[in-house]
Amino acid sequence: MSQMVRTAKQLGAYIQDARARKGISQQQLAEVIGKQQKTISSIEQGSDGTKLETLLLVLAALDLNIEISARTKASQNIGDIF
């Protein structure tokens, strides 16, 4: 399944959904990646300050990948960008 994500909150919600689909708790995910449960909670809330390396560990633990693509310029409205 592919999902476009443009904000930290959207990414956090997607990660939370993926974790729930796997049937694991925040604590279990945190243990797998060697972090604290509050780190997972922070990521899922879309909080600022998450290290890229931590995010990549979370994605790997959930069997997710990041795909980067160019944004289309169909709209000039700044609200459509974010």
UniProtKB/TrEMBL annotation:
GO terms for molecular function: DNA binding. It comes from the Bacteria. InterPro entries: Cro/C1-type_HTH, Lambda_DNA-bd_dom_sf. It holds the Pfam family HTH_3. Transmembrane segments: none annotated. Coiled coil: none annotated. Residues 15-69 form the HTH cro/C1-type domain. This is HTH cro/C1-type domain-containing protein. It comes from Sphingopyxis macrogoltabida.
